[in-house]
Amino acid sequence: MDSQTLLERFTSGDLRALARAITWAESGHPAGAELLRELRGRGNSRVVGLTGSPGAGKSTLTDRLIEEARRRGERVAVLAVDPSSPFTGGAILGDRIRMMRHYHDSGVFIRSLASRGALGGLAGAVVGALALLEAFGFERIFVETVGVGQSEVDIARVADTTVLVLTPAAGDAVQAFKAGVMEIADVFVVNKFDLPGGERVIQELKTTLELAPPRPGGWKPPVLSAVGSRGEGITELLDAIDRHYAHLQEHGLLEGGRLERARFEVESVIQEWGRRRTREGQDLITQVASGELTPEEAATRLLSNPEMSR
C-alpha cells in the first residue's frame, strides 16, 4: 500500500489504515514520517497516562476506564507501552490480553508499543502514535506505561493528566516518594483497596502532599481508592481526571504541555540516533575503553561526522 492510499483510508476512518500508519511511524518508515507531517496537529484528544509499579493493577483499571468512557459515549484508544523483548525487540503483549473483551467494539482501539530499551522509559514512537490517534478522532487516549524506571517520569511529559496507581502493598507508597513520582502525578489512586493497609496508604499520601510544593495553577491532586477487579471507584477516578483537564483549560496550561510533548519526541529521536551511532562506531568505543579517547571526544566525533561511525 502506498502512502497516499493509506492517507485516504486513514481519513475515511479505516481502523486497519490507522494500525498500519502506527506501524510505519514506530518502525521509522519514511512514509510514516510523511504521514505524521500531514496529520500532526489534527484532533483534540484528552491524553491520560497511567503509571505505577508492576502488579498495581494498571491494566485492570485501564480496562474499567475504557468501559466507563464508552458508557459516556467517548471513542477510546489505548497505548500499552510494554517492555521490549530482549530477543526480538518487539512488545511483550501481556497488557493487551486483559482488554480483549473490547476488541469487537469499533469505538475502542488498543495497541501495544515496545519501549525498545528507551533508557527504561517511553519510546519516542509513542508520541507519533498519539498524534495519529488524535488525528483519527479519538476523544480519549489512555497510555499505560511499563511502570518502572524512567517511564514513570516520561509519562508526565506526554500525557495531559498523569495517574499514579498504588496498592496497599508494603513499601509501595514509600517507593513512590523515593522515585520522585509524587511530584509529577496529577491524580493518585490506591487500587486493590480491599486489601489490608489501604486506608494507611491514603493517609500517607495525603500527609505527604500537604508538604509538597504548589502545582501549576494551584491544582491539588486528589487521592482516591478503587477496586479495579470489581469496578469500584472507576466513575470517581474518571471524574477526577476530567476535573484536572478542566483545570488545565481554565489556567491555559494545555499548550505548554503539548510543547513539552514535542520536546520529548525530539529528544527521543536524538537518543535513538546516539544509540545507533554507538552501535556502528565500534572503533571509537574501543578507543574509549583503552583510554585513548574520552567519552566526550568519541561522542563529538560520532555526532558531528556521520562517516566516523562507519
Could you describe the 3D structure shown?
The protein has 310 residues and is α/β, with parallel strands linked by helices. The chain has three domains: 1-39, no CATH class; 41-252, 3-Layer(aba) Sandwich (Rossmann fold); 265-309. 50% of the residues lie in helices and 13% in strands. It contains 13 helices and seven strands. Strands 3-2-4-1-5-6-7 form a seven-stranded parallel β-sheet, with helices on both faces. Strand 5, helix 8 and strand 6 form a beta-alpha-beta unit. It is globular. The two termini are 33 Å apart. The model is unreliable at 84-95 and 117-121 (pLDDT under 50). InterPro entries: GTPase/Isobutyryl-CoA_mutase, GTPase_ArgK, P-loop_NTPase. Keywords: Chaperone, GTP-binding, Hydrolase, Nucleotide-binding. This is Putative GTPase.
